[in-house]
């Protein structure tokens, strides 16, 4: 049951959000909690796309400066939906301590949370699993 209670943390806490452009807001809307089942592959694609947008110098790593610049432009938490990047995202994601976020680091936490939420391990977080997760964290 604990595994089904972690999905909101998947994106709200762990996944980066890029909402600076209207098409980016649509991507977050597609991963809105409780509206439809969410596949693991969608989470991977979501994180990859957003990583690419955060990595403004295209060096394959998100620097502290890129992270701060993104944070300064993202919408308020209430408007950002499940893709809001919190103030501790960088520190929690930089698992090797090298001062940058690699694509693998950006994906690791969201996928770990997704896998915990996907109770039956079928690669899909159902609406029921999302609802249980939502109740657990008070969304």
From TrEMBL:
* Name assigned to this protein: EF-hand domain-containing protein
* Residue ranges constituting the EF-hand domain according to the UniProt record: 42-77
Which species does the entry assign this protein to? Sphingosinicella rhizophila
Tell me which positions the record assigns to the signal sequence.
1-20
- Name the keywords, alphabetized: Signal
Q: Which SUPFAM superfamilies match?
A: EF-hand
- Extract the Gene3D superfamilies matched here: EF-hand (1.10.238.10)
Instruction: Answer whether the UniProt record assigns the keyword Signal to this protein.
Output: yes
Q: What InterPro entries does the record point to? A: EF-hand-dom_pair, EF_Hand_1_Ca_BS, EF_hand_dom
